[in-house]
TrEMBL record:
Taxonomic lineage from the root: Bacteria, Pseudomonadati, Pseudomonadota, Betaproteobacteria, Neisseriales
Gene3D superfamilies in UniProt: MetI-like
Residues in ABC transmembrane type-1 domain copies: 116-331
GO biological process: microcin transport; transmembrane transport
Family classification: Belongs to the binding-protein-dependent transport system permease family.
Cellular component GO terms held in the UniProt record: plasma membrane
Compartment(s) where it occurs, according to its Swiss-Prot or TrEMBL record: Cell membrane
SUPFAM superfamilies: MetI-like
Name the record gives this protein: Inner membrane ABC transporter permease protein yejB
Phosphoprotein among keywords: no
Length: 347
């Protein structure tokens, strides 16, 4: 097992470099980079402007001089060959130096740290509620397969799956967020304006009150997949021969379900738990964050792509890819932990 883990950790390095190299190469051919955007901004502003680093530059006769263009390229690091820029970036990333944003005047690490609480709140609540609802519901649907309960819950889950989270969030805002009907919940934001003046109990209530609608909109779209997966896995185990043998021996149905079926059926669900849990820390839903005025990682990533803020694009890609690869490794290890029959690299 330890040998397998060591080999997988070694494979992280070329995988990360490959993903960064492909993204970096694509970026080189994308028009409208930061230099072009700054030139356009200065041209529209008139006779002068300020660069992203704080240095001044002047327009002459409606256009920038060659010296000013060279200064802009040097400011954004485009005065170096692409290979040298990529090598410098990988060397910085190896030290977890993610660079500095072109437009926010902050380091990428500070930006991620600032935006992460919003995405964590949305992701973790969605993750826990999805598992807490879908697993018991999927088990009940498997046990009562073909019953009226199975049919009705299947229809409800299917309706929730067909409605996009953004549309459901809009409906929730109209109905309960002070739209055209009831004003039970706030329209947006992670907390209220008077959050600092509230007591600890008041802060918890205010936070939960603000998260109710966006979390509901996010959970609804995840219910169908996890519920159907849980039901199918349990149905497959219920129909296996060892279950018929246990029933023939006179074991109670509850004991068969909890002691035999549950343990085997939970293997594919538990093994996906590490990846889903780690992914919840970096969940960024652009539409949900925009609709409910949540300034999180989804909105940050979208703005970085639109503004061609390459340090933010590459820095967040590096962090998310690294966490995703580690989560995949944890998922593989959990197979062996949940089912001792599975071994990696052994006989």
């Amino acid at each position: 097992m330890w040998r397998y883990i060591f080999h997988r950790l070694l494979l992280l390095i070329p995988t990360l470099i490959g993903i960064l190299a492909v993204t970096f190469a694509i970026i080189q051919f994308v028009p409208g980079g930061p230099v072009e955007q700054m030139v356009q901004q200065l041209t529209q502003s008139g006779v002068g402007g300020e660069t992203a680093g704080g240095g001044g530059t002047m327009l002459k006769h409606g256009r920038l001089s060659a010296e000013d263009m060279a200064a802009l390229n040097a400011l954004y690091g485009f005065d170096k060959p692409p290979l040298e820029r990529f090598t410098d970036m990988v060397a910085r990333f190896a030290r977890f130096d993610l660079g500095e944003s072109f437009f926010h005047h902050q380091t990428v690490f500070e930006l991620v740290k600032e935006k992460m609480p919003v995405s964590m709140s949305l992701g973790l609540w969605t993750f826990f509620l999805t598992y807490l609802i879908c697993i018991p519901l999927g088990i009940a649907k498997a046990v009562k397969d073909g019953s009226r309960f199975d049919t009705l819950t299947g229809v409800v889950v299917l309706v929730g799956y067909t409605i996009p989270p953004f549309v459901l969030g809009l409906v929730l805002l109209v109905l309960f967020g002070g739209g055209s009907f009831l004003a039970w919940f706030p329209q947006g934001g992670l907390v209220g304006d008077d959050f600092e003046q509230l007591s600890w109990t008041g802060k918890i209530k205010d936070y939960l009150w603000h998260m109710a609608l966006p979390v509901t909109a996010s959970v609804a779209g995840n219910l169908a997949v996890m519920t159907v997966l849980t039901k199918n896995v349990f149905l497959e185990e219920i129909r296996r021969q060892y279950v018929y043998t246990a029933r023939a021996k006179g074991l109670p149905e509850r004991q068969i379900l909890l002691k035999h079926i549950f343990r085997n059926a939970m293997i594919p669900l538990i093994t996906g738990f590490p990846a889903a849990f780690i992914g919840a820390f970096f969940t960024g839903s652009l539409l949900i964050e925009t609709l409910f005025s949540l300034d999180g990682l989804g909105l940050l990533s979208y703005e970085a792509v639109m503004k061609r803020d390459y340090p933010v694009v590459m820095g967040t890609l590096y962090v998310f890819t690294l966490m995703g690869l580690l989560a995949k490794l944890l998922s593989d290890i959990s197979y062996s932990w949940v089912d001792p029959r599975i071994h990696f690299g052994g006989k």
